[in-house]
Amino acid sequence: MAPDALCTPFTHHPADDSDSWQRMIADSITTAEGLAAHLPVDPDRIRTVIQRYPMRITPYYLALIRQQQDPIWRQAVPDPAEIRDTDLAADGLGEEPQSPVPNLTHRYPDRVLFAVSSQCAVYCRHCMRKRKVGRPAGITAATRREGVAYIRHHTEVRDVILSGGDPLMLADEVIAALLAELRAIAHVETIRIHSRIPCTLPQRITPTLVGILRRFHPLFLNTHFNHPAELTPAAAQACAALADGGIPLGCQTVLLKGVNDHPAVMQSLLRGLLKMRVKPYYLHHPDPIRGTAHFRLPVRKGLELMRSLRGAVSGMAIPQYMIDLPGGGGKVPLLPDYVQGADQNRLCVANYRGEIYEYPG
Fold this sequence. Notes:
Blueprint: H1 20-26, H2 32-36, H3 43-50, H4 59-62, H5 71-76, H6 81-84, E1 104-108, E2 111-115, H7 141-153, E3 159-163, H8 172-183, E4 190-194, H9 197-200, H10 207-213, E5 219-223, H11 233-244, E6 249-254, H12 263-275, E7 279-284, H13 299-309, E8 320-325, E9 330-334, E10 339-342, E11 346-350, E12 356-360
Parallel strand pairs: 2-3, 3-4, 4-5, 5-6, 6-7, 7-8
Antiparallel strand pairs: 1-2, 8-9, 10-11, 11-12
Helix pairs in contact: 8-10
């Protein structure tokens, strides 16, 4: 199959066109018939999946697909495996029991995760909140007000993580008002935004949006790139605009079977992120969430991948490999076992080549 024959062309709107991202959302693929007009898929199979888990693919992200089942296809195109997966829990990480008010998870003493939007530019098929995204009734202006009130009355909260869905799907004026409310709370020290927009809809990163965000420092943005094919000139331009606005950028990559579970792919991704001034932050093992089992792989494979990075890429490019414990246990970092033995006087340590060295204890 000819790679360029998969997707029909779309009009690229430059990042300084403040309306281009809304037009791109309006032109996104959301139906089985719409997808079949661009990609060789069976509409009936797609329709069955999106009845349970909604689909949205921006024209920009659709154009990154080069062939069937390539890494971009796997992340964006619904797969019947999603609805065959019934063994895992919909809320496998136990967010709901740790939510004192709707859409706000208070798992750690000093921080909260605050879901402020149910919409995303692309509904990733590996999403750990498949139970929520694409359902507008779940997150509203009322739930955002309730969340802000909770934060205001809990002085132990120093760090607020805005998530969703994707917070940057909100209108500029809503983002500005929400950030102003949070910044006015004396005990809130830092605000983080978790957004995949720089990857899936970089046209959203307009000068107006950057101007809003830079008013509320210290503010950090963790984005989400999973494959080198996502590191496009448009994505680089979006990240540069944010970085030039003084916003530190991190990346929370998810280790996905058939997407980035090969050392050469991961190394290319991590090097490319640094070139775009994005610090690799976490490499998440795929969460045990219903509808995502086909992306999961053994933790052993993840540890082998992490070992392959040491010595192959800059230490600045090596993320922490994380698992999120089921039932609300929280995130735990995993490391390859470099210590081969120990006694009171020495350690036996393997380097990145597997060579053993003695280190005085």
